[in-house]
Write a structure and sequence with these properties.
The protein has 8 helices and 16 strands. Strand 2 (about 10) and strand 3 (about 15) form a beta hairpin. The strands form 3 sheets. It has a 9-stranded mixed β-sheet with strand order 9-8-7-10-6-1-4-5-11, sandwiched between helices. A 5-stranded parallel β-sheet has the order 13-12-14-15-16. The protein has a two-stranded antiparallel ribbon with strand order 2-3. The protein is elongated and about 60 Å long. The chain is an alpha/beta fold. Helix 3 (about 70-85) crosses helix 4 (about 95-110). The structure holds flavin-adenine dinucleotide. The site of flavin-adenine dinucleotide has 28 residues, from helix 6, helix 7, strand 15 and helix 8. Flavin-adenine dinucleotide (FAD) binds near residues 231, 244 and 301. Belongs to the ETF alpha-subunit/FixB family. Heterodimer of an alpha and a beta subunit. One of its GO terms (biological process) is fatty acid beta-oxidation using acyl-CoA dehydrogenase.
Length: about 325
């Protein structure tokens, strides 16, 4: 069976959920192999983690030489592993870094690239939601090794034991890949909430909050959700840009998206309409967001959300 390479997305060795989703997808397409680029001391734990989601092989690349540089060396590592493994596809998590690695890799391998897939089936045939969600596109790479970046939450991670055979891979990094260097990095402020783009539930607030995000945040916390915002809320200075969802913000695709006090402008929809279930709370029953929802509540979010929070808390 053909190998499917999955680039492991991790923070200091802690494998992030989107990688388990990619491994689940890889299993549909062939034999999943994980590529872990990180400190050798973190490799064992990472290999254990990916093995539980079906990784038959784990390529471990010590990052001593790579750490401190931007993404170019990672593309070179993948190119070299691909030359050895001749995989049927390479899957990478969609995100700023993942997409840059994928783009560079596609040039190196002279392969076709598909970004932001929301589903990948045998073929591999991908599904993308494009033009602010107005079209759903099925696509297939026709040249070289298919390189596909997949949005978080595209698949529910399914545990399935793999052999997890560790293979230490020694890569050669070119001088040109070391031309851009990280000079400082600042960890994201710890909120105790999941990361917005990978959260299973997102609760967002818009102009309708009037700047009071407390009901949105309390409801999010009762559900273990991430908090998002519309551009109107961000432009008003109520939340930083990192919270913005939409065309000029982040794209999310959670199991459940709750839009509170958000009208549903096309630019906002572009960032959330591939969510599996959409719920809106809006006091205007004519608000466009209601065209999109699975479940809508016409009411004041300052009343509806605290009532919903109390109900969720009671049932815990
Ligand atoms: P509004 O449209 O003002 O809607 C507020 C809603 O809250 C209304 O429907 C109202 O009925 C409801 N409401 C008011 N009070 C309450 C209450 N107490 N309880 C319940 N409901 C209440 N927008 C984004 O979100 N993300 C983007 O990335 C983005 N990119 C853009 C890019 C471009 C190039 C442009 C031109 C625009 C972009 N926008 C983006 C802006 C977008 O067009 C809308 O202006 C914005 O999404 C509106 O935000 P909103 O829904 O919070 O505000």
């Amino acid at each position: 069976m053909s190998e499917i390479l999955v680039l492991v997305d991790h923070v200091d060795g802690a494998v992030r959920k989107p990688t388990f989703e990619l491994l689940t997808i890889a299993k549909r397409l062939g034999e999943p192999s994980a590529v872990f680029i990180g400190g050798a001391d973190k490799a064992d734990a990472a290999a254990e983690a990916v093995k539980k989601y079906g990784a038959e092989k784990v390529y471990v690349v010590d990052d001593t030489e790579i750490k401190g540089y931007l993404v170019a060396p990672k593309a070179e590592v993948l190119q070299q592993i691909a030359a050895q493994a001749n995989p049927a596809a390479i899957l990478i998590t969609s995100g700023a870094e993942g997409k840059e690695i994928a783009g560079r890799l596609a040039i190196k391998l002279e392969s076709g690239l598909i970004t932001d897939a929301v589903d990948v089936q045998e073929g591999p045939v991908t599904t993308q939601s494009v033009f602010a969600g107005n079209f759903t596109v099925k696509a297939k790479v026709t040249k070289g090794t298919p390189i596909i970046t997949v949005k978080p939450n595209a698949a529910a991670p399914e545990e399935s034991a793999g052999a997890g055979a560790v293979e230490k891979f020694s890569a050669t990094i070119s001088d040109s890949a070391k031309k851009a260097q990280i000079v400082a990095s600042q960890p994201r402020e710890a909120t105790g909430r999941p990361e917005l783009t990978e959260a299973a539930i997102v609760v967002s607030g818009g102009r309708g909050t009037g700047g009071n995000f407390e009901p949105v945040e309390n409801f999010a916390d009762s559900l273990g959700a991430a908090v998002g915002a519309s551009r109107a809320a961000v432009d008003s200075g109520w939340k930083p840009h990192a919270f913005q969802i939409g065309q000029t913000g982040k794209t999310v695709s959670p199991q459940l998206y709750v839009a509170a006090g958000i009208s549903g402008a096309i630019q906002h929809r572009a960032g959330m309409q591939t969510s599996k279930t959409i719920v809106a709370v809006n006091k205007d029953e004519e608000a466009p967001i209601f065209e999109l929802v699975d479940f809508g509540v016409v009411g004041d979010l300052h009343t509806v959300l605290p009532a919903a929070t109390a109900e969720v808390t009671k049932r815990k």
